[in-house]
Amino acid sequence: DWSSDVCSSDLESVAPETFPLDPLESDRNIRVGNYYWRKGNYRAALQRYERATKYNPSSADAFFKVGEAEEKLKNKDAARAAFQRVIQISPESKTAHDAKKKLGEKG
């Protein structure tokens, strides 16, 4: 029975990751995402942008990046949701203005 070989540290490693509020870590994930974006690896970029939104759920920039990456991956509904979130977070910002333009393009 292989299950007896599983130690408690193995079980801890599959526990859901927690994301404390950390704007610096959020910004770092955006920068890494931008690196992948420039390389054309939109899926990897999206993963980083999504992590950025978890470290800073009020980052309009991170959600805008998520929206752009979802667009590149042809996930229109997810892109629309991300752009709508940008507008909720920061309705008067330039980022929200850009998100509104993106939503207009989507129909």
Question: In words, what does this structure look like?
Answer:
The chain contains six helices and no strands. It starts with 7 loop residues before the first helix and ends with a helix. The model is unreliable at 1-9 (pLDDT under 50). It is an all-alpha fold and 107 residues long. Helix 3 packs antiparallel against helix 4 (60-72) and helix 5 (76-89) packs antiparallel against helix 6 (94-105). The protein has helices at 8-13, 23-39, 42-55, 60-72, 76-89, 94-105. The chain is globular, with a radius of gyration of 17 Å. The longest helix has 17 residues, at 23-39.
- Order of SSEs, N→C? HHHHHH
Number of helices: 6
Global morphology? globular
Distance between the termini: 56 Å
Largest sheet at a glance? Answer: none
Structural class: mainly alpha
pLDDT averaged over residues = 89
Helix amount: over 70%
Brief account:
With 107 residues, the chain is mainly alpha-helical. Helix content is 71%, strand content 0%.
Explain the layout of strands and helices.
Blueprint: H1 8-13, H2 23-39, H3 42-55, H4 60-72, H5 76-89, H6 94-105
Helix pairs in contact: 2-3, 3-4, 4-5, 5-6
Index terms:
mainly alpha; 107 residues; disordered N terminus
